[in-house]
Amino acid sequence: MATQATAQRRFSFLQIAITLQTLTIFLQAVSAGLLLTSSYGETLHGVGARVMYGASMLYVLAAVLAWKPGGGSPRPVWYASGFLVLASVQVVLGIAHIPSVHLPLGVLMVGLSVLALTRR
Q1: Average pLDDT of adjacent 10-residue blocks, the chain of 120 residues
Q2: 92 Rama class: left (phi>0) / alpha (psi -120 to 50) / beta
Q3: pTM for this prediction
């Protein structure tokens, strides 16, 4: 019984991490629109990028904690790690002001995060 409760708690932490990541990425899309239309959009988008990156790191941590102690599938760790790589590329592209790749990658990240959220 204790094992089931522990597994459920890990599932919940992983679900929370994926939900947080999806929410922060969606808010990045909103702040990207504000970036184009308002004076405070750049600040909001920059702060949001840091929060989104932190949420991606939290997703990796949650995936590892759900996998390693319980002996579950390592697949969520690969998904989370891949997403962290995409987030890193996204940050570099944003800093370099390469919107021709930054924007489509952002759309892809929203889709992948929603997919990860619904697959859980």
Answers
A1: 55 89 95 91 94 96 85 87 97 95 96 89
A2: alpha
A3: 0.84
